[in-house]
Amino acid sequence: MEQNRQDIHPDVKSIVLSEADIEGIVTRMGAEVTRDYEGKNPLLIAVLRGAVVFMGDLMRHIDCQLGIDFMAVSSYGDGAKSSGVVRIVKDLDTKIEGRDVLIVEDILDSGLTLSYLMKNLSSRNPKSLEVAAFLVKDVAGQNPAVKPRYVGAHVPDEFIVGYGLDFAERYRNLPYIGILKPEIYGK
What we know:
Helices cover 22% and strands 30% of the residues.
């Protein structure tokens, strides 16, 4: 179902991906993961909190045995820019040694936080370690520090909200991906 103009939140400038677009992306990614992990038992790790919506949908489109766990890594706080300091707020409950691990990420921009997380998880000796990023932000002149194995869609270098993505804990429940108006986040 396409979004019409009156369905757009007043703080959102425009819709980048509709609910139908998101469903198509998640279905495609689920099929790719199913193909690549056939006969295996991957552990999907959602990076909280933004990726929880995506992981919930993605795992329902994966047709193989799998496990799930969660990590919370902080580098933003309540602001629009990264603080530059990465810290693990919630660690895994599952041992990953010898497991095929797939990090499920909501959005990848610089990739610095994800790079830190991958180094941390690599030190725990997983059998394999890959990334499924729902969105990759196209930042001019910048290549992300991490190259995801699975990419849902590319989005412009704007402040993206909806479908789990937030600004100061708002807008996560929007059913689409939209661009937040600059006056909302103080740009």
